[in-house]
Amino acid sequence: MKPVSVLLVDDHPVVREGYRRLLERQKNFAVVAEAEDAAAAYQAYRDHSPDVVVMDLSLRGGAGGLEAVRHIRQWDKRARILVFTMHSAAAYALKAFEAGASGFITKGGEASELVRAVGLVARGGRALGDDVAREIAAERLADGRSPLADLGPRETEILRLVASGHTTEDIADALHLSPKTVQNYHYQIKSKVGARTDAHLVWLALGAGLVAADAPPL
Fold first, then answer.
1. Contact 78, 65 (CB under 8 A)
2. What is the mean pLDDT of the chain?
3. Vertex 76, ends 127 and 23: CA angle to 5°?
4. How confident is the model over 167-214, as pLDDT tens digits?
5. Is the residue at 148 inside a domain?
6. What's the predicted TM-score (pTM) here?
7. Is residue 108 domain-shared with residue 58, that is, in the same domain?
8. Do 21 and 121 belong to one domain?
9. How far is Cα 122 from Cα 80, in angstroms, rounded to an integer?
10. Among the four 12, 68, 91, 164, which has the fewest Cβ within 10 Å?
């Protein structure tokens, strides 16, 4: 039986090596490529056409995993992408699924959860970690609506970059957009979430788990 081919996307080589060893201990998985940023992930997907992409959200450079998911799915609507991240925020998980992800689990779970999720996504299923499911359920039961609910995946990614301190020019380069387009997105995001200042945007991004409060400065 042909093994499930996997593309690993994470910006830490040692972490990727751990995932590779874990998956390749299973007889039915084969890691065919690795990438450390969104651009390399997209190119690796085109070069290798893996059955499953295991995608972190925090990557080197400007563009993050959310943008990588969106870009790969634009090129191949059949792509099966499992987000594997430290983020457990409901808003982030929902935006990942909206961008085209087939699964969302966190790195805080057991190693067996990653193996199970890769297999499930490879078979065409959807995987959702228990901790993320609890976050989503809690938000729904509290009748809370995320202020990011009206943002699309690209707008969410731009919000993350703005809140992380990236300039308009940085974001334009990372996402292959014109500075004017980024400025337009920036204005639309403020309008949709009801923010009058960038400081308010940062506060909203922190609350939604898009950026960490203890993130190192750029």
1. no
2. 85
3. 45
4. 888 888 888 889 999 999 999 888 888 887 787 888 777 777 777 644
5. no
6. 0.71
7. yes
8. yes
9. 7
10. 12
Q: Are residues 116 and 78 in the same domain?
A: yes
CA distances from 209 to 59, 110, 202 (A): 16, 22, 11
Of 114-118, 128-132, 158-162, minimum mean pLDDT range: 128-132
Q: How far is it, in rounded angstroms, from Cα 68 to Cα 44?
A: 11
88-120 pLDDT per residue, tens = 777 778 888 888 899 999 888 788 899 999 999
Residue 27, pLDDT > 80, answer: yes
Cβ-based neighbour number of residue 218 at 10 Å: 8
Among residues 108, 141, 174, which one ends one of the domains? Answer: 141
Which residues 6+ apart lie within 8 Å of 191 measured at CB? none
Q: Tell me 89's DSSP state.
A: -
Q: Taking Cα atoms as reference points, which of 138, 76, 81, 82 lies closest to residue 109?
A: 82
- Give me the domain span that covers residue 44: 4-141
Q: What secondary structure letter does DSSP report for 60?
A: B
Q: How far apart are CA 53 and CA 102, in angstroms?
A: 10
35 and 122 co-located in one domain: yes
95 within some domain? yes
Please report the DSSP string for 101-141 in residue order: -SEEEETTS-HHHHHHHHHHHHTT--EE-HHHHHHHHHHHH
Tell me how many domains the chain contains: 2
* Residue 204, domain CATH: 1.10.10.10
H/E element holding 53? strand 52-55
Residues 59, 167 within the same domain: no
